Amino acid sequence: MSQTTDASKTLRVGVVGLGFAGTTHLDAYTALPGTEVVALAGKETERLHELAETRHVPHTSPDWQDLVARDDLDIVSIGVPNSLHAPIAIAALESGKHVFCEKPLATTGAEAQAMVDAAVANDRVLEVAYNHRRRADVQFLADHVRPVDGQDGPLGHVYHARASWRRRAGIPGITSWFTNKDAAGGGPLIDLGSHVLDIAMYLMGEPRVVAVSAVAYNELGTAGRGGSTGGGPVSGATGRPFDVEDFANALLRFEDGSSLQLQASWASYSKDDEDIEVELLGSTGGARLFVRNYATEGTVELYSDIDGVPAVTRPAVHVPAGHHQRVIEEFLATIRSGSHEGHHGEFALHRTRVVDAVYASAQAGHEVEVVR
Ligand SMILES: NC(=O)c1ccc[n+]([C@@H]2O[C@H](COP(=O)([O-])OP(=O)(O)OC[C@H]3O[C@@H](n4cnc5c(N)ncnc54)[C@H](O)[C@@H]3O)[C@@H](O)[C@H]2O)c1
């Protein structure tokens, strides 16, 4: 077992998963100084060997168990279907490895709690890939709305937010693991909604969600409509049923009285394309992030009054690529700091509890409380 807080030591990494997520992790560690990817696991044999050869990874295996059992790893990086996050992370944490896990942390709050418990018990870092919060436009907004010396920022008291990720036709592989409840935990709400929920809660200063009222539908996906035309998971079709939502809408109530409307869709007959939106309504100003097709310019607007006249400001924020790499850099810095307090997956656990409550409310047809 390799446990270290020696900041100068090379951190040895095992990456599980060969799709967009696993490959992005692999490339991030490969590009960063002070890390070495020594093991890679995944089911697609040809791709496994091609990635290992081109990224100079010495050890490969088809199964995550072989990788996690290695005693020469400091880190396990998880980029596999959501239902595998908990078993892999818990096994890795219990064998003394730090874990970087894709979003969502887990398919249920109970699984996420077990992961956090394992991270705390073994004092290992458990970090989640909320990479979109590391976009430069989100960082700009975070700096802009943040209270200064205990005083409200330019937006005043932020009492409501709207956060959504909506697609016109972007179901990621109908009949892949993404569209099966057991493998994914849910549809666009747990997939895309996890990101915009994270951004909104981050910008609002991490208020606790106490109750959720939600609806969810699957009118298009179950009829075979709304599939994504490009990309898709490398793991392909599973033959499992499409039994998740393709659209969800929720109202979240926070402990401090503020609220958030959260919406996610993989497909809908609408003007949507590939639209990420987060809007903050404050007592003295407002702000809107609108990102169409991963745009990198012109994504921020600020709303205020100038001499009593409604005004719109469009700050020229440029968004460079590499959000995943920045989250991984922070994860590595936390490990090297030796101080893991607050980095055992706690924020992601609360978000997973919220996702649980969204699905429970949609199923029950009434508002439900969020488990503490
Ligand atoms: N943060 C982001 O922007 C982002 C983007 C895409 C996906 N994701 C997340 O990443 C994860 C993976 O998504 P993806 O699109 O890369 O999926 P994918 O289907 O393309 O890849 C999944 C990989 O997991 C591997 N795998 C499955 N079972 C395995 C096992 N038992 N042992 C070892 N490997 C196994 C498959 O072989 C495959 O290589 C999901 O949790 C998803 O939500 C995050």
Characterise the protein shown here.
- This protein is α/β, with parallel strands linked by helices and 372 residues long.
- It folds into 2 domains: 11-129, NAD(P)-binding Rossmann-like Domain (Rossmann fold, 3-Layer(aba) Sandwich); 133-321, Dihydrodipicolinate Reductase, domain 2, CATH 3.30.360.10.
- The chain has helices spanning 20-31, 45-54, 64-68, 85-94, 109-121, 136-145, 181-184, 188-191, 193-203, 323-337, 346-364; strands at residues 11-16, 35-41, 59-61, 75-78, 98-102, 126-129, 158-167, 209-217, 247-254, 259-265, 274-282, 286-292, 300-306, 309-313, 368-369.
- The strands form 2 sheets. Strands 14-13-12-11-7-10-9-8-15 form a 9-stranded mixed sheet.
- Helix 2 (45-54) links the parallel strand 2 and strand 3.
- The longest helix has 19 residues, at 346-364.
- The model has no long low-confidence stretch (mean pLDDT 95).
- The structure holds nicotinamide-adenine-dinucleotide.
- Nicotinamide-adenine-dinucleotide binds next to helix 1.
